UniProtKB/TrEMBL annotation, chains A, B:
Its main location: other. Residues 293-465 form the Acyl-CoA oxidase C-alpha1 domain. The lineage of its organism: Eukaryota, Fungi, Dikarya, Basidiomycota, Pucciniomycotina. Residues 695-719 have a biased composition (Acidic residues). This is Acyl-coenzyme A oxidase. Heteropentamer composed of five different subunits.
Length: 740, 740
């Protein structure tokens, strides 16, 4: 290209100015404060969240800017310090308020939240749900709530097994002479593994072990087992504990392994709300095992909510960065173009924003539903009549299946969103200080614990298959699977006309039709395997259709998110002023989610002929159009997610857009200047100042010979080997750029 | 469930026994040694690789088992020590042999390989490709090859820009009085960023800067700039350098930032093979800028090869783990079922294995093609005639476009494969000692450097669009896009019959048809934007079809991998004995890749009606069937990838299958026993022994008031807020399991 005069080069507006323009241009698209309330489940919750963000930002324990450079020991020490500081709030704040505090912390500081959740959620939770009322008050009196003299952990998983709880191998053998249980780890495979808090900080463990009485095995029960002297933290006799060490993420939590060697505990340390063991070793089983599902459902809703917040956090960083980052000039731009102005970049981020918003609204609606479920479950007891029980359990089945699919796909969605946001920052997404790498590493485990996502997906698919069978028998299905009540006509519906393609009702009808068809596909594969005798029994038949079950759960869940989003919009529209832009903007987001998710699942919409190829092109064009429309208010939408710079903890996603100065400052702060490398004298000087090895060095001669042989072999090979390396080529190869 | 007698419980075979059975059962499926040669690009390369693995395993510098617990400084020091040890080989081994050594190391030890590649590939490579022959010998005489007195780095990227090289802001202003260039960093945004080796270990940098002479800007050129005194490593005047600090991965390399403040270098330090600046400041431009593409192509092929090896490494871990890991009992199994026996688990791993093999064969064929290209390019010079030049450049266009798509999708495929393998290990995939987390973190950057994958994909799509235009004009297209020579009939071909669905020729025809259609879609969107005037000029028209270009490149590349795999099979079949099972097994793998990739892109095969919905079901059934077939020899296939336990560096993927003992031993070795936490006295004891805060503590009263207010707000909200939290619900919420 021809040279240009220096004077002709035009500087773009500063990142700060660019960000200001973004907000100025979009102001008026919607009422930001009202949008915050909509996105944050109402004014009350938003204000509470803001109060907590304000408190966290001032709390020196919750400094986040330096976490990427802390050692494992340092981050664990800080985690325990935060843990201690929470004892004040948990004992002084009302439970719903404290819960809100923890929900915010789970987005801001996942590793700490985990350490806390292990004690309060898992250990105390297990005592509450598994202990008799006497046992609950006993352990609370021992300091389990106030963290005085007692810190708990939850010892379920073993090195050889986690998902299959029934297969755990740790034993709890009743000794009726001494009225004690003997807790024992029979093999390395039975070593308790991943136990959060065990490595350093827990005094007691809730242990899952096989109950054995008089050589009979009664299955896995829970036992409270003291691990350490609460004064000295010395391990108690028969307890062997080690540190699990470095993990992909969440290093703030001291995961450990535990081996028990004939450890004796009093009979009363078995949690006996359900199964009970009497003094003389009789076992009384619970009337309704299902009762324990309650907490599970709540846990899953919480994870959907967390997935939504985490995705919003990542998108806040990526969208703000894309608003101020410039690269290349397009058309007659005088200055480089903002990334956010590139259609492909809008395509990379805005559908994910729509999905995050859909997950958020879904979590709000699900928590109400699950709360209702849980209350009904609580109200059940041995005295409840069969009819009542049956109804609750029927509803439980659907809720349970839906929640399994939601947990799986929402945690996967959040993980994928973080990765795509990270990659959208280009090289800077590879810097720890962008915060996206550690967000990814922290999120990854959400897809495994609380039920491995693939297993949960298949559970959801299993339940869809049986719901389909029920629907064929004419059972009226509740909630999320009610579209199956439209069988068989629902299977053959299709988009009425090209002009109707984009109506929300059409999209909904499409999801119902396609969901019904993929569930049918799984059911028929199952049924065929069963009837043909290819499969021995239901279990094998279910295995035969596992791929189809997976697809069914995937499509069902995507459609479910769309339906929840729409229902939430209807609710919101009731109180929301028509003229403040909130509802219209959310409708565009809802339509974007619906169309994009259809595009992602296009094969099914085409295969079952709900949409024609031409109509699929209309959907694709609409996704592109909506991305361009929402791009205009994209920064304002990140503002409506209402996350402080402190919580986001990424200079590349800062509110004011001054990304390069803040990023540069963060890097310098975290990496103080060193005149020379700490290893200069040890490694660099000897290299740089060494004498060249002379060619008649004996070692060299030997190596040369070796090479000669192999070179020989190579020459022999060459006739038959087309395209074998030549020195010329290899010289080029050696020049292959590996980049910085 | 009813209790069972202890005696009735049956123990499964040990992991070691299970692994042995796997090999016993599959022995005879194919000749393992011959399969190794096929997978490893021939006997010669496989034997060389084995020799290097053997050497690495014994070299204490290449200990890998402890890398996960090293600090950033420790891993950097070790990296430099390895770097120094390579000086011997690079100066004594023939280049092709040394190159093979580095290819293995790039799979075994990516962070070290990067440090090495930055000096030899980028810095020395830039001198070789950008310097005159005098300049090349000058810098080699200064010790650039032997690492005596000189270590190089490559200073291209700036904090504000990487992809758009033309937009870089560092200046090189010619001072004709002193015959020097003044290298200067005008702003924070122009700070050189991510520069590998700059933080601590480089003495010189090849700097990309805007050439400015007499207030005219001549674009970005390369300049050799001394950074440090090679004796003391003190920074030279005007050089400011800092450490970029913590990254997502590859922490072994000391990436740094550099600011130049009026740094003067002799005119001769500008690399002048292409653009030349005379003593009096005249500029002579090169005849053919394209010449510099050569190394780029080689770099991309190398990355495809590395993506294949990295994916094979991850799959070796995941498949061996799945072979010995057991969970749940299916059907009438007496013991828990191996994960690898679950159809869904086969579906998770075996298609990725087929894809990795496809990428491997593709890289072998591409390197031959690129070598040929490069030689032709080398042979061009100012004296070449226009006709000859035009032909080479035409071929270059196609090769360049194809290589861009391959680099993007193969590095993405490898990243996704690592993540899916990691997740398939369940919780253990979250342990650093599984090695998969750091493999993921190391691989991620491959998708960004050497050209951001999204940008490369669009480049590939751009070239496909113009190829389509050429094809319409009747130009005969070479190589990868030759299917476009079949226009227009190719667009409307379809699978002749259900029975023909699975023939390799049918799959090939399908890829050709669908590739042509998606390219057509992009071309027409482009053409429409241009003709309708919606877009001002080609650039804007290309932006208007960027999503379609992305899809076109995606489908084109998947089809290209399938074609390369098939062509490689034909070649192999020539020398391979018919009866040793190698070719039939590879054909099954090739068919699996073809069918699975079709399933992944099903929407296009349905949309363009190459396959009917019924035929898509045949494809899906075949994927499931092939997964079950290849499951039988899955472990043997990992053996054919021929990677030592040392290279794999994951006790969970060890050859002998004794995963739990080795994993437990690794964790204990890496985390020596500590009686109490190092932070026990500082943090834990004060918590556990503290006095409870009494309720009349002033602080508490104040906080109680605050809470009272908010509780008040809440009560007011409740009428209008449906499903607001009740204590009962919140109590449940608090019990939400956070898991270990």
């Amino acid at each position: 290209m021809p040279p240009v005069p220096l004077s002709a080069l035009k500087a773009p507006p500063s990142p700060r100015e660019t960000m200001q323009r973004e907000r100025d241009q979009s102001r008026g698209t919607f009422d930001l404060e009202r949008m915050c309330y909509a996105m944050g489940d109402g004014e009350y919750n938003v204000k509470l969240k803001r109060r907590f963000m304000f408190e966290l930002e001032r709390d020196p324990l919750f400094k986040l800017s330096d976490i990427h450079d802390l050692t494992k020991d340092e981050i664990r020490e800080r985690t325990m310090a935060k843990f201690a500081s929470m004892a004040h709030y948990v004992t002084n704040e009302s439970i719903p308020i404290f819960q809100q505090r923890m929900n915010l912390i789970s987005t801001a500081d996942p590793a700490f939240w985990t350490r806390f959740g292990v004690h309060y959620g898992l250990a105390l939770g297990a005592v509450r749900s598994g202990g008799t009322s006497n046992q609950v008050s006993y352990w609370i009196s021992k300091g389990m709530l106030g963290l005085q003299g007692m810190v708990g952990c939850f010892a379920m998983t073993e090195i050889k097994g986690g998902s299959n709880v029934a297969g755990l191998e740790t034993t709890a053998t009743f000794d009726d002479k001494t009225d004690e249980f003997i807790i024992h780890t029979p093999s390395v495979g039975a070593t308790k593994w991943w136990i959060g808090g065990a490595a350093h900080s827990a005094t007691h463990a809730v242990v899952f072990a096989q109950l054995i009485i008089k050589d009979m095995v009664y299955g896995v029960k829970n036992f409270m087992v003291p691990l350490r002297n609460p004064k000295t933290y010395q391990l108690l006799p028969g307890i062997t504990i080690g540190d699990i060490g470095k993990k992909m993420g969440r290093d703030g939590i001291d995961n450990g392994w535990i081996q028990f060697t004939n450890v004796r505990i009093p009979r009363a340390y078995m949690l006996m709300k359900h199964t009970q063991v009497t003094r003389n070793g009789e076992v009384r089983e619970p009337p309704l095992a299902q009762l324990t599902y309650g907490a599970l459902l709540q846990g899953r809703t919480a994870m959907v909510a967390d997935a939504a917040s985490t995705a919003k956090k990542a998108l806040t960083i990526a969208i703000r960065y894309a608003a101020v980052r410039r690269a290349f000039k397009v058309g007659d731009n005088e200055v480089e173009t903002q990334l956010l102005d590139y259609p492909i970049h809008q395509r990379r981020l805005l559908p994910l924003l729509a999905q995050a918003v859909a997950m958020g609204f879904t979590s709000f609606r699900m928590s109400a539903l699950f709360e209702h479920m849980t209350e009904q479950l609580e109200s059940l007891d041995a005295s409840s009549d069969a009819q009542e029980t049956a109804e609750v359990l029927e509803k439980l089945k659907e809720t349970h299946a839906t929640s399994a699919g939601l947990k799986a796909f929402c945690t996967w969605n959040a993980l994928e969103t973080i990765e795509k946001c990270r990659a959208s920052l280009g090289g800077h997404g590879y810097s720890a200080y962008s915060n996206l790498p550690s967000m990814y590493n922290d999120q990854a485990v959400q897809c495994t614990w609380e039920g491995d996502n693939t297993i949960l997906t298949l559970q959801s698919g299993r339940s869809l298959v049986s719901s389909y069978g029920d629907a064929l028998k004419g059972t009226k299905l509740p909630g999320g699977t009610s579209y199956l009540n439209g069988l068989p006509s629902i299977l053959t519906t299709s988009c009425p006309s090209n002009s109707a393609t984009l109506e929300l009702d059409t999209l909904q009808a499409g999801w119902d039709c396609v969901s019904a068809n993929v569930v049918k596909q799984a059911y028929e594969k199952f049924d065929e395997a069963l009837k043909s005798g290819k499969a021995k029994g239901r279990e094998e038949a279910l295995e035969a259709c596992s791929q189809e079950r997976f697809v069914a759960a995937k499509v069902h869940t995507a459609g479910y998110l769309f339906r929840m989003f729409r229902e939430a919009l209807v609710e919101l529209a009731k109180d929301e002023p028509a003229d403040n832009g909130v509802i219209p903007t959310l409708e565009s987001i809802c339509r974007l989610y619906g169309c994009w998710a259809i595009e992602e699942n296009a094969q099914h919409f085409l295969k079952y002929r709900f949409f024609s190829p031409a109509q699929m092109d209309i959907i694709t064009a609409e996704v592109t159009r909506l991305c361009a429309e929402l791009r205009k208010c994209a920064v304002l939408l990140t503002d409506s997610f209402d996350m402080s710079d402190h919580i986001i903890n990424s200079p590349l996603g800062c509110y004011d857009g001054d990304i390069y100065e803040r990023y540069f400052a963060r890097v310098k702060e975290a990496n103080p200047h060193q005149p020379v490398a700490p290893y200069f004298e040890r490694v660099i000087r000897p290299l740089i100042e060494r004498e060249p090895l002379s060619i008649d060095d004996a070692d060299d001669i030997e190596i040369d010979d070796e090479i000669a042989e192999i070179e020989e072999e190579r020459r022999e090979d060459e006739e038959e080997k087309k395209g074998a390396e030549t020195k010329e080529k290899a010289a080029k190869e050696l020049e292959k750029p590996a980049d910085e």
